[in-house]
Design goal:
Rossmann fold, 8 strands, vWA_TerF_C, alpha/beta, 255 residues, VWF_A, VWA domain-containing protein, 10 helices
């Protein structure tokens, strides 16, 4: 269940306004009390240096944390970065969110842009099975074969909502396609945000992949996260998520 606004005010009063805006966006989305674990997955390539130095990624983390209070009452998000690899660096919570991004990054060195490692790191951290099989059935109208969950896969008690932000294309596009396709059999919804002046055609391609078990991603080009109103950002974050919840439940990924 969500964390009450009174509790947010008690533990992190500076986040109360954000939490109110997040609560309103969740109410409008029609999620109807659906809980979720929330992960923030940030590009840590060299081109992102100014985003961290300016505090933009810290401010984004605070907005994601505010949204998470309306999904889950643990008052925390799981924090991942991807560069030449990917890693879960810890949690950012209502108790320690101030400067949380810098604290968790520590002395980690920036690298390249490995999307595939990020997709698999999130899956593995939450303990979802890696075993997959490819359906022998063709997709609709004779389209590509679909991946399917391995035999014995059981529905999860709650999904994972993963906000993935980047400013550039991955090191390996085929590896990214393969990894996102593989993790489509797990109860993880990927919200892709791109920053910068132009939309990213490759993220739109990932959004539209046919081989997945379920459409597990949505892409939004946001340009500059600091320039969007809180309301607009939360609406972008939640777009397509309720529809994914419904389909994930129908397909047995969540209870």
């Amino acid at each position: 269940m969500p964390l009450s606004l009174d509790k947010v005010a008690e533990k992190a009063p500076s986040l109360l306004s954000l939490a109110k805006n997040a609560s309103a966006a969740v109410d409008m989305s029609g999620l109807n009390g659906q809980t979720a674990k929330v992960a923030l997955v940030l590009d840590f390539s060299a081109s992102m240096h100014s985003q961290y130095r300016s505090g933009a990624m810290q401010r984004l983390a605070e907005k994601v944390l505010a949204l998470a209070t309306q999904f889950d009452d643990d008052g925390a998000i799981d924090f991942f970065v991807f560069d030449s690899g990917a890693a879960h660096l810890g949690e950012i919570s209502l108790d320690d969110f101030s400067d949380g991004v810098s604290r968790l990054i520590g002395k980690r060195r920036m690298g390249t842009t490995n999307y595939a490692a990020a997709f698999l790191a999130v899956r593995d951290h939450f303990g979802f099975p890696a075993a997959l099989k490819t359906s022998t059935r063709k997709g609709l109208f004779g389209g590509p074969k679909k991946v399917e969950p391995a035999a014995g896969t059981v529905p999860a008690d709650q999904p994972v909502y993963a906000l993935f932000l980047t400013d550039g294309a991955p090191d390996s596009k085929p590896a990214a396609v393969k990894a996102l396709t593989e993790v489509s059999t797990t109860p993880i919804f990927w919200k892709f945000l791109s920053i910068g002046r132009e939309e990213m055609a490759f993220l739109q391609k990932l959004d539209d992949l046919d081989e997945r078990f379920i459409d597990n991603a949505d892409y939004k080009a946001v340009g500059d996260t600091d320039q969007l109103s809180d309301t607009a950002l939360f609406e972008a974050m939640l777009d397509e998520y309720p529809a994914w919840i419904a389909e994930a439940r129908t397909k047995g990924l969540i209870r």
